[in-house]
Structure formats: C-alpha cells, structure tokens
Write a structure and sequence with these properties.
- The chain is of the alpha+beta class.
- It has one domain: Creatine Amidinohydrolase, Chain A, domain 1.
- It contains 3 helices and 4 strands.
Length: 79
C-alpha cells in the first residue's frame, strides 16, 4: 500500500462528512483514515462514514500525530 497524505484546498465536507477544522486524511488503496486530536474525537465518531477509520492522535498508547501514526503503521519503525 502506498499511503497518500492529502492536503488540499477543497473543504473537508467534499471528501467526507467530518466538518471539524483540524485533522489529516490519509487514504490508501484499501482504507481511509482521519487523524485528529481529542478536540474532535466525539465529532468525528458522530460524523464519519463507516468506511473511514478514526485515529485518535494524542490518545493514551496512541500516536502523537499523523506522522508518528504513518511511520509506525506503514513504514514499520517502532516508536
């Protein structure tokens, strides 16, 4: 899988139903992820389509941000 980090000027509600103002979308061939911090976890759980996985940045035992998640999840460098 080749993940692609999307940073685009299109509003997030065009890509998916999450309307929060902070988060990163990472889309792979097989999956789609939204990485956001604790300010938006509840909102993301309520708004995301079931095809998206929420990654809770800053959670206990979780990644601190999208970069750490990407490195550990896809590149395979342990934290």
């Amino acid at each position: 899988m080749n993940p692609a980090h999307l940073q685009h000027s299109v509003p997030t509600d065009v890509w998916f139903s999450f309307t929060g103002s902070a988060g990163q979308a990472i889309i792979t061939k097989d999956s789609a992820y939204l990485i956001t911090d604790s300010r938006y976890w509840l909102q993301a759980r309520e708004q995301l389509d079931p095809n998206w996985d929420l990654v809770e940045a800053g959670a206990v035992n979780g990644p601190k941000d999208w970069i750490e998640w990407l490195v550990v999840s896809y590149i395979g460098i342990p934290d």
